[in-house]
Specification:
This protein has helices at 12-31, 61-66. By secondary structure, the chain is mainly alpha-helical. The longest helix is centred in the N-terminal third of the chain and has 20 residues, at 12-31.
């Protein structure tokens, strides 16, 4: 791995910190199998909003259908 400073004049401590971050990210990427599915975020889980029955048809159903309760 080659790292080249394009702009600026970093101190040896700054270079060491940047290299530590790059190495940690590379190690984390190497540990994850390439074919493994990614963890889904709870916000994207459809069952989160489908925990209750949908409201009965009526004039305000469109407003109540998004926020159950």
């Amino acid at each position: 791995m080659t790292i080249k400073v394009v702009r600026g004049n970093p101190t040896p401590e700054e270079l060491a910190a940047a290299l530590a971050v790059v190495r940690a990210r590379a190690a984390a990427a190497a540990e994850t199998p390439s074919g493994a599915p990614e963890q889904r975020d709870g916000w994207s889980d459809p069952s989160r909003i489908a925990t209750r029955r949908l409201p009965q048809p009526g004039p305000t159903t469109w407003a109540r259908s998004y926020w159950p309760g």
